[in-house]
Design brief:
This protein is an alpha/beta fold and about 350 residues long. It has 2 domains: about 180 residues, 3-Layer(aba) Sandwich (Rossmann fold), CATH 3.40.50.450; about 130 residues, Phosphofructokinase domain (Rossmann fold). The protein is about 40% helix and about 20% strand. The strands form 3 sheets. A 7-stranded mixed sheet has the order 3-2-1-4-5-12-13, with helices on both faces. It has a 4-stranded parallel sheet with strand order 7-9-6-11, with helices on both faces. Strands 8-10 form a two-stranded parallel ribbon. α1 runs parallel beside α10 and α5 packs across α6. It binds 6-O-phosphono-beta-D-fructofuranose. The site of 6-O-phosphono-beta-D-fructofuranose has 10 residues, from loops.
Length: about 350
């Protein structure tokens, strides 16, 4: 009997369990024994794995996180860990591993595959939606919906108190969550890592908005946003603060000091990653899981499952991890129509 392995690596996100469930169902129906590896690459290093049967994956579709656990370890940094992976993978008898993860996990998978240490198929997971080669990764839709709900809630309190609300969302390198949740939540300004920010311009447009009679504003800021230009008055001091603080806090401080408008900052953080996945992410995770087993069956190794124009495809993992997928500039231009 052939053996399939599955691991979830890197940051968790809603929808991982739907992939695991689909891989187990489809795998068993195709005659595979499916082994679940615990805590990402750490499970292969420590030989921590167990057989997953139908019972082990029943009732998990709507659960956030991953029943397998995850970790952010990078075994490539330690040759001893790599040799443990080689040994444990061989001993497990796994014919092909389905690696579910983002950029880091898939880079590790690719390296081990190229070294002939593992056989692998990748499944794209990224709440930041930053993986190339696929229109969407699962987890992103849930994060956008959670962030949108939070923006809606902050909107009403901003309006009542005539305040500016700065909402910091996840996205270290790409601003997909900020852009989509910002559009859906009616943000007056959206800041993303792809477009360095001129805070003088932001303060001026907020002042103009308030002069037009609006007494509150909503700003959505991706955590990786870079401030390029600071207001003259406190410029040195702001630059100094940038080194320590998170960007939402800094943006809020600058606005309050430069405009005099009362400002509050909310950092949504891991709230965006926890909890139940949206229907979209459950369906996408299910589709990806089934397609991944099909790729293994067809011996299409070193590939990543992908979604293009809502159809399932596959791409080389190498292609997917080469460059990050930055935001859709056309969509950003559309969003600017509603700015301040
Ligand atoms: O990569 C996904 C992500 O959620 C990023 O958006 C965020 O910057 C980071 O992970 C947070 O990492 P951690 O969970 O290790 O704090």
């Amino acid at each position: 009997m052939k053996k399939l392995g599955i691991l979830t690596g890197g940051a968790d996100c809603p929808g991982l369990n739907s992939v695991i469930r689909a891989v187990v169902r489809k795998g068993i129906s195709e005659g595979y024994v499916v082994t679940g590896i615990k805590n990402g690459w750490a499970g292969l290093v420590d030989n921590d794995m167990r057989i997953l049967d139908l019972r082990a994956t029943s009732g998990i579709l709507d659960r956030g996180g991953t029943i397998l656990g995850t970790s952010r370890i990078n075994p490539l940094e330690d040759p001893e860990q790599v040799s443990k992976i080689r040994e444990n993978y061989k001993r497990s008898g796994i014919d092909a591993l389905i690696a579910v993860g983002g950029e880091e996990t898939l880079k590790i998978a690719l390296h081990l595959y190229k070294q002939g240490i593992i056989q692998v198929v990748g499944v794209p997971k990224s709440i930041d939606n930053a993986l190339s080669g696929t229109d969407y990764a699962f987890g992103f839709d849930t994060a956008v919906n959670v962030a949108t709900e939070c923006i809606d809630r902050l909107h009403t309190t901003a309006e009542s108190h005539h305040r500016i609300m700065v909402i910091e969302v996840m996205g270290r390198y790409t601003g997909w969550i900020a852009l989509q949740a910002g559009i859906a939540g009616g943000a007056d300004i959206i800041m993303v890592p792809e477009i360095p920010v001129d805070m003088e311009e932001v303060c001026d447009s907020l002042k103009a908005r308030h002069q037009r009679g609006r007494s509150f504003s909503i700003l959505v800021v991706a955590e990786g946003t870079k401030i390029e230009k600071f207001p003259k008055r406190g410029s040195g001091e702001y630059k100094e603060r940038r080194r320590y603080g998170n960007v939402g806090e800094l943006v809020g401080k600058i606005i309050e000091e430069e405009t005099g408008f009362e400002t509050r900052v909310s950092v949504l953080g891991h709230i965006q990653r926890g909890g139940t996945p949206t229907a979209y992410d459950r369906i996408l995770g299910t589709r990806f899981g089934i397609k991944a087993v099909e790729l293994v069956k067809e011996n299409k190794l070193g590939k990543m499952v992908s979604l293009q124009d809502n159809k399932l495809h596959y791409v080389d993992i190498e292609e997917a991890v080469k460059n990050r997928k930055t935001i859709d500039m056309e969509l950003y231009e559309m969003a600017t129509v509603f700015f301040a």
